[in-house]
Specification:
Elements lengths: L1 H24 L8 E11 L10 E6 L2 E3 L8 E2 L5 E9 L8 E6 L6 E2 L6 E5 L5 E6 L2 E2 L6 H18 L5 H16 L2 H4 L8 H7 L2 H18 L3 H13 L3 H19 L1 H19 L4 H15 L7 H10 L3 H26 L1 H5 L6 H11 L5 H24 L3 H16 L3 H8 L2 H19 L2 H13 L3 H18 L2 H18 L7 H13 L8 H12 L6 H26 L1
Parallel strand pairs: 1-9, 1-10
Antiparallel strand pairs: 1-5, 2-3, 2-4, 2-6, 6-7, 8-9
Helix pairs in contact: 2-3, 2-18, 3-18, 5-18, 6-11, 6-16, 6-17, 7-8, 7-9, 8-9, 8-10, 8-12, 9-10, 9-23, 10-12, 10-23, 11-21, 11-22, 12-24, 15-16, 18-21, 19-20, 19-21, 20-21, 20-22, 20-24, 21-22, 22-24
């Protein structure tokens, strides 16, 4: 009874196997053949610079075709180049009308002329292969994002210049506002898209941030040694009661210190000592402090690390420490000598009122009061500082960013000196300044992405009519006058892409002379008023804290004409030697 049943089951299984296995065993139908098209090209602006993140659309006979790939979206890379692959029905090419459309916020929509499609043969499977090239030049478009970015940049400048709020808050508020508008209004309407978060992060120049942080730590350790106070005592002893000689020596020391430490740090170290010496001599400390801060800005102009604008320029343009010294040290030395003599004449009456009756007693007092407190730490700090400066000199040969030199020096100094790193980070690193730079970089990036910077650059180019001499004079004086009334740091950051544009469009500018025009204008022009440079603000603030006030106009009277003299000397130097 069971045998027939088992036989029936086996027959049924064989029938099912035949039914379901036959399609698998049957030969597959050949894949449908197609036309495969590869489209490549470069999208650039009017100056030939590649435009990134432009969405590429392929139009075949007026209809959009999606590229092969998971995201089905094609964008240009960092240098404006793109490569896309498309699959079309067999026989579509090469006779079809093939075009490329470029789409990006703040840029005019651009559609190419019909492209020439080339036959590249066939692959082993029999698919026809075609390729074409699409190079397009894009033009800027004025959108709401442009006006918003321009307004934010202007408001940040006004808030900083008027000191309506701390400059760090002003810069970061502007950056936050740009990102907020981008991801609210810009999400629904691309005309309000200003700056992506990814581009905002890429705009932060960490070379500048880490260079400043490293040097702040090195100087913080040097503070503990009493070295700068000792130098002030030695200056007075060398002058032997002659206030004119003392003022000149203090200016020279401040300028040299500013060249290798940065002008703000140098003034922070010199101000307390200078006030103490002035009180001892019974003269107004401002008669020594103003020449010193002027000298600090002049000295800081000579090197890559001496003034924040130079740090910005060097990092952006990939200029080395040696290039700064070679091109700027000579004119800065001339300016230092001329302005030092100017201030000896300007403050002659104040110096003649100094009480220098008992010079030996004053020297003995200063010798006891201002001495090196830790010789071992001084030797270690100076040795490592010398090593860092050596790395600055050869960093171009090593292809090493200056920030690497500053960081290795500062960390090595902390390791060998056993100074508490937490104390250094809490008290010596000026975090508000570093955060200010971060916010400022993002605000400038917003202005650059929406086309504001390019429009300003084209205006400068048109004004100079493409003449290098006119451009040098224009950049120098515009930088100087502007930096006198707004902080030279945000101004320099704004000018960087403008100078880069001019270097590409003005014949002869490839020598780099416009970078030196910007450096001299921004650094020396910052001497014009008390708000023009960070060192000025620090000096006035600490002097007022000690009870010595100076008004905006009084400061300007003391510094405006020396500033004009130094910028004029710089103009003559640039026109003669470049």
């Amino acid at each position: 009874m069971s045998y027939p049943r088992n036989l029936a089951v086996q027959v049924l299984m064989m029938v099912l196997l035949v039914i379901f296995a036959y399609p698998l065993a049957a030969p597959a139908s050949p894949p449908e053949k197609s036309d495969n098209l590869t489209v490549s090209g470069i999208l650039a602006d009017a100056q030939g610079k590649g435009v990134k993140e432009v969405e590429i659309e392929l139009l075949v006979n007026g209809r959009q075709v999606k590229p092969l790939g998971r995201d089905e979206r094609l964008e240009t890379g960092g240098k404006g180049s793109f490569v896309g692959r498309y699959r079309l029905a067999q026989g579509t090419l090469p006779d079809a009308r093939v075009q490329v459309r470029a789409v990006k916020p703040s840029w005019q929509l651009r559609e190419s002329e019909p492209l020439k499609v080339l036959d590249a043969g066939a692959d082993p499977a029999g698919h026809r292969l075609f390729q074409t090239q699409a190079d397009l030049t894009l033009k800027r478009q004025i959108t709401p994002a442009f006006w918003i970015a321009a307004l934010v940049l202007l408001v940040v400048y006004v808030l900083i210049a008027a000191e309506a709020m701390h400059r760090t808050l002003a810069a970061f508020l502007g950056a936050a506002l740009i990102l907020f508008i981008t991801y609210t209004a810009g999400t629904f309407d691309k005309n309000y898209f200003i700056l992506s978060f990814e581009d905002a992060m890429r705009s932060i120049d960490l070379n500048v941030i880490f260079l400043l942080m490293g040097m702040m730590i090195i100087v913080g350790v040097l503070k503990k040694t009493g070295l700068f106070q000792w130098l002030a005592y030695k200056s007075y002893a060398r002058a032997r009661g002659n206030i004119f000689v003392l003022s000149f020596i203090l200016q020279v020391i401040t300028a040299i210190a500013s060249a290798f430490l940065d002008n703000v740090t140098a003034m922070l170290l010199m101000i307390p000592v200078t006030i103490e010496i002035a009180v001892t001599l019974k003269i107004n400390p401002m008669t020594l402090l103003i020449p010193e801060v002027f000298a600090s800005n002049v000295g800081g102009t000579a090197t890559l690390i001496g003034d924040p604008p130079n740090i910005l320029i060097g990092s952006y343009a990939k200029l080395t420490f040696v290039q700064f010294v070679t091109n700027l040290a000579l004119i800065c030395t001339v300016c230092l000598i001329i302005t030092s003599l100017w201030y000896l004449w300007w403050y002659k009456k104040g110096y003649l009122q100094a009480d220098v009756k008992d010079v030996d007693r004053t020297i003995a007092y200063l010798k006891e009061e201002y001495k090196i407190t830790n010789k071992k730490l001084t030797i270690m700090a100076l040795g490592i500082l010398g090593f860092v400066i050596f790395l600055f000199i050869i960093h171009g040969v090593l292809h090493m960013e200056p920030s690497v030199a500053a960081l290795i020096g500062s960390m090595a100094l902390l390791a060998v000196s056993r100074v508490d790193i937490v104390e250094m980070l809490e008290h010596e690193v000026e975090w508000p300044t570093l955060v200010f730079f971060i916010g400022l970089f993002m605000v400038i990036a917003g202005a650059e992405e929406t086309g504001l910077i390019q429009i300003i650059a084209e205006w400068v180019k048109d004004l100079s009519r493409g003449n290098l001499t006119a451009a040098v004079v224009l950049v120098l004086w515009v930088s100087a006058i502007a930096s006198a009334f707004i902080d030279n740091i945000p101004f320099t950051a704004t000018m960087l892409p403008i100078i880069a544009f001019l270097n590409q469009t003005i014949p002869g500018a490839e020598s780099g002379v416009l970078w030196w025009s910007l450096a001299l204008g921004a650094c020396l022009g910052g001497n014009g008023t008390m708000i023009g440079a960070s060192a000025n603000v620090v000096t006035v603030g600490l002097a007022e804290k000690a009870g010595y006030h100076i008004s905006f106009l009084a400061y300007m009277r003391a510094c405006w004409w020396p500033m004009i003299i130094t910028v004029t000397l710089s103009m003559v130097y640039l026109l003669l030697f470049y």
